């Protein structure tokens, strides 16, 4: 009898309909529950593909050290895949990231290196490259690694197309590394060029939404191609947090802040269109954010 391994459980996440938040509308609002991945987020897909493809190219072998700058979910996913496939994992992140995320990475055996909150993800990226130059390991570089969006081209996009029977009209995704939206857009547009791809970003510099960025042009991910996004929608931190809490109490979907941002944007979009099938990504689970105070105590 052939048994599954943890990595075979990455992907094929549920696509479920919002029952109350959607309101009285001609549209169908669906969310893809990426928190159902074994590592708890959409980043499991990219992490697994980046390591698999690096192995296939002969760039790494079990026992090697890997380095990555992360805001949280990618780090957890990479720590999990490194544990499965036998690598040492060094993760660099802002000291402002939640304790649940740090604890999860350490549980998988990863080494955590902190940068200040003011340095943020940009400082973490710079340090990762410096460490690589010093021979301390290989940087997978989710921001410039085509294996990141390719993971979604080969899995997330096909799953959405399959599970909607090709009826998807709009795909809404928060933009962090932009891997999810880039790969999914490429696949869906190949099936139907009329599918609208909507990117979600923070409304302003003061809005701090974990997992969503409005990038400084000097740090814009190299994998990002603006021609693959039809529309950008802004959400405030308050809007993202309110929707995150609504998803829990009105739909029974316990998720993180970026998922709330994507769903808030999807609801704004739903108020502008008719007879549409709108999919947004619920990219992780809410238990990673409890210590931050975004949920009622």
UniProtKB/TrEMBL annotation:
The UniProt entry's GO biological process terms, in alphabetical order, are: cysteine biosynthetic process from serine
The EC number of this protein is 2.5.1.47
Q: Which CDD domains match?
A: CBS_like
Q: Which reaction does it catalyse?
A: O-acetyl-L-serine + hydrogen sulfide = L-cysteine + acetate
Look up keyword Cell membrane and say if it applies.
no
Q: Which GO terms describe its molecular function?
A: cysteine synthase activity
Q: Which residues does this entry mark as bearing N6-(pyridoxal phosphate)lysine?
A: 43
Under InterPro entries, the record lists: Cys_synth (IPR005856), Cys_Synth/Cystath_Beta-Synth (IPR050214), CysM (IPR005858), P-phosphate_BS (IPR001216), TrpB-like_PALP (IPR001926), TrpB-like_PALP_sf (IPR036052)
Any Pfam family the entry gives: PALP
Q: Does the keyword Translocase apply?
A: no
Q: In which pathway does it act?
A: Amino-acid biosynthesis; L-cysteine biosynthesis; L-cysteine from L-serine: step 2/2
Which cofactors is this protein said to need?
A: pyridoxal 5'-phosphate
Q: Where is the Tryptophan synthase beta chain-like PALP domain?
A: 7-284
Output the PROSITE patterns linked to this UniProt entry: CYS_SYNTHASE
* Alphabetical UniProt keywords: Amino-acid biosynthesis, Cysteine biosynthesis, Pyridoxal phosphate, Transferase
Q: Which residues form a coiled coil?
A: none
Where pyridoxal 5'-phosphate binds, per the record, is at: 73, 176-180, 258
Family statement = Belongs to the cysteine synthase/cystathionine beta-synthase family.
Known NCBIfam families for this protein? Answer: cysKM, cysM, PRK11761.1
**PANTHER family attached here?**
CYSTATHIONINE BETA-SYNTHASE
UniProt name for this protein: Cysteine synthase
């Amino acid at each position: 009898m052939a048994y599954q391994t943890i990595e075979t459980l990455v992907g094929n996440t549920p696509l479920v309909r919002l029952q109350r938040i959607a309101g009285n509308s001609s549209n169908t609002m669906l969310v893809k529950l990426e928190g159902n991945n074994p590592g708890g987020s959409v980043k499991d897909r990219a992490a697994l593909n980046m390591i698999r493809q690096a192995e296939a190219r002969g760039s790494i072998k079990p026992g090697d050290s890997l380095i990555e700058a992360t805001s949280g979910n990618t780090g957890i996913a990479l720590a999990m895949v490194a544990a499965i496939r036998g690598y040492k994992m060094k993760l660099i992140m802002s000291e402002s990231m939640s304790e649940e995320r740090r604890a999860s990475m350490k549980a998988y055996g990863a080494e955590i290196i902190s940068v200040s909150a003011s340095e943020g993800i940009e400082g973490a990226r710079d340090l990762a490259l410096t460490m690589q130059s010093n021979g301390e390991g290989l940087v997978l570089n989710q921001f410039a690694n085509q294996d990141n969006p390719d993971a979604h081209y080969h899995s997330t996009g096909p799953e959405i197309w399959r599970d909607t029977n090709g009826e998807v009209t709009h795909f809404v995704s928060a933009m962090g590394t932009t891997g999810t939206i880039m790969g999914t857009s490429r696949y869906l547009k190949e099936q139907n060029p009329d599918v609208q791809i909507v990117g979600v970003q923070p409304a302003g510099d003061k809005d701090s939404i974990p997992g969503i960025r409005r990038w400084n042009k000097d740090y814009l991910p190299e994998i990002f191609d603006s021609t693959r996004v039809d529309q950008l929608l802004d959400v405030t931190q308050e809007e993202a947090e309110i929707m995150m809490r609504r998803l829990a109490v009105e739909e029974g979907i316990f998720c993180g802040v970026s998922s709330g941002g994507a769903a808030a944007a999807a609801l704004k979009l739903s108020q502008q269109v008719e007879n549409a099938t709108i999919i947004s990504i619920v990219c992780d689970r809410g238990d990673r954010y409890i210590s931050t105070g975004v949920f009622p105590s």
